[in-house]
């Protein structure tokens, strides 16, 4: 089996810790794993001035500082925006992009733009009410997505508010994301709908693969063995 460098980028509110089950399994298989904590999500640093480009730069800096080439860059949820932009900025260092039940970057569009009007309004109001941060979700959101109460409690204990500018900032892409070599992992609990309608069209691209996993939005928590298997199968 070929050895790969995996760069694991967590979604909103979370840091490298959420990837630990995947890090352990991929490492056991002989791969090298780099789990990222994005700026402002370590629970201690200031989040002033943090935007989408800040998070893209976090991952680019890791790729350059560790001289990683042919990386498999994995972005969960919000971090699909980050992973796709990283692959666009450094195609010579990224062999494959993996979008785990995530948003996908489109030039001139933000993560927030992918949601319906009601969701956009609610998230906008939340960010305004919390001094520029997107507040941590309620327990019900996690349990509806397949987590046990115990799992949800453990996750929520470590979550921090997310810098709101990162989901409002517009993505800038040099090449359409449809041209990347990519895999989209669609989690089918509580339903199989894609996170936005245009993702279904992207999975028809000849350079994209679609994998469905019967679990909720945080498969690194609820289905780590299956997610690890899917990631390890990527070549």
Q: What secondary-structure arrangement, pairings included, does this model have?
A:
Layout: E1 5-9, H1 20-28, E2 32-35, H2 52-65, E3 71-76, H3 79-89, E4 94-100, H4 117-129, E5 133-134, H5 139-144, H6 149-156, E6 162-163, H7 165-168, E7 182-187, H8 197-202, E8 208-213, H9 219-222, H10 224-232
Parallel strand pairs: 1-2, 1-3, 3-4, 4-7, 7-8
Antiparallel strand pairs: 5-6
How would you describe this protein?
- The model has no long low-confidence stretch (mean pLDDT 95).
- This protein has 235 residues and is α/β, with parallel strands linked by helices.
- Strand 7, helix 8 and strand 8 form a beta-alpha-beta unit.
- Helix 1 crosses helix 10 and helix 2 crosses helix 3.
């Amino acid at each position: 089996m070929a050895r790969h460098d995996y760069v694991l980028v967590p979604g909103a509110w979370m840091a490298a810790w959420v990837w630990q089950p995947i890090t352990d399994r991929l490492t056991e298989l002989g791969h090298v794993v780099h789990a990222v904590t994005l700026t402002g999500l370590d629970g201690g640093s200031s989040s002033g001035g943090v935007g989408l480009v800040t998070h893209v730069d976090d991952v680019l800096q890791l790729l350059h500082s560790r001289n990683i080439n042919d990386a498999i860059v994995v972005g969960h949820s919000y971090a699909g925006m980050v992973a796709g932009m990283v692959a666009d900025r450094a195609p010579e260092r990224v062999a494959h992009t993996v979008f785990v039940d995530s948003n996908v970057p489109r030039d001139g569009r933000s993560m927030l733009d992918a949601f319906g009007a009601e969701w956009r309004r609610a998230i906008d109001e939340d960010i305004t009410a919390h001094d520029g941060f997107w507040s941590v979700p309620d327990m019900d959101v996690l349990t509806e997505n397949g987590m046990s109460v115990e799992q949800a409690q453990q996750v929520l204990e470590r979550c921090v508010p997310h810098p709101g500018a990162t989901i409002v900032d517009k993505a800038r892409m040099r090449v359409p994301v449809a041209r990347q070599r990519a895999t989209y992992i669609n989690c089918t609990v509580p339903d199989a709908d894609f996170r936005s309608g245009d993702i279904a069209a992207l999975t028809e691209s000849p350079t994209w693969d679609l994998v469905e996993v019967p679990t909720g939005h945080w498969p690194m928590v609820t289905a780590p063995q299956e997610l690890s298997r899917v990631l390890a199968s990527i070549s």
